[in-house]
Amino acid sequence: MERFQDENKFLGSFNNEILVKCPKCESKAAVKEELKENCECGRCHSMVFECKKCFYKLKEPVFQYIAYGKEYCNNCFEKFEYQSQPLKEKPLKYGTKCPHCSFQEEWKTKSYRIKESSNTDDGLVRETWYNLPLWFQKEVDGNVFWAYNPDHIDYLERYIGAGLRERNSKSNYTSSLVARLPQFVKAAKNREKLLKILKKWKE
């Protein structure tokens, strides 16, 4: 019987390289840790996206902006709130209609920024820096089974394939990757199905 002991690894233990789908050519690409320029301590890292097939590269997430506010209409004097759709540039002013009388006017606005999202590949799991869909993911009975990279795949394969799974009693073990796996991954009935997926990903 194969045995697995929780090594207290977290999801962050595998994010030094996250394999994703390139938004330009749809090939396998990567979001990787990279030492920041002018770093003298050797510990300042950022996440950089790069596709080796089409050479598309990103060093900072692309942001969009949401304009929002609370105003009194200058026509009917009713108070209303507004919030814009995502905008490409940070707005100083924003034009909107009063929901009570449809009077349109422009306001000095507040805004907050969000990472640019894509309408493609809806429902897929994405990495958090550039909002790109993970390369390794597959739907399993209404759930999405996914992995960041080959090391993550190996760790999941050892856990899922083990007949005996042992928890680690060290501190924070309830927050480990294994402790936080969804139930469909832990279920014995899905073992063979998930192992076949992992084997295919490794090929």
Overall average pLDDT = 87
> What's the arrangement of strands in the largest beta sheet?
2-3-4-5
Outline the low-pLDDT stretches.
none
Radius of gyration: 23 Å
**Structural class of the secondary structure composition?**
alpha+beta
Distance between the termini: 25 Å
Instruction: Tell the overall outline.
Output: elongated
Q: In percent, how much strand structure appears in the residues? A: 25-35%
Please describe the topology of this protein.
Blueprint: E1 3-5, E2 17-21, E3 28-35, E4 45-50, E5 57-58, E6 63-72, E7 79-83, E8 93-97, E9 104-108, E10 110-115, E11 136-140, E12 143-147, H1 150-161, E13 164-166, H2 183-186, H3 191-202
Parallel strand pairs: 1-13
Antiparallel strand pairs: 2-3, 3-4, 4-5, 6-7, 6-10, 8-9, 11-12
Q: What report would you give on this structure?
A:
The protein is elongated, with a radius of gyration of 23 Å. The chain starts with a strand and ends with a helix. The longest helix has 12 residues. The chain has a four-stranded antiparallel sheet, with no helix packed on it. It has a three-stranded antiparallel sheet with strand order 7-6-10, with no helix packed on it. Strands 1-13 form a two-stranded parallel ribbon. The mean pLDDT is 87. The protein has two domains: 142 residues, no CATH class; 53 residues, no CATH class. It is 14% helix and 33% strand. The chain has three helices and 13 strands. It is α+β, with helices and mostly antiparallel strands and 203 residues long.
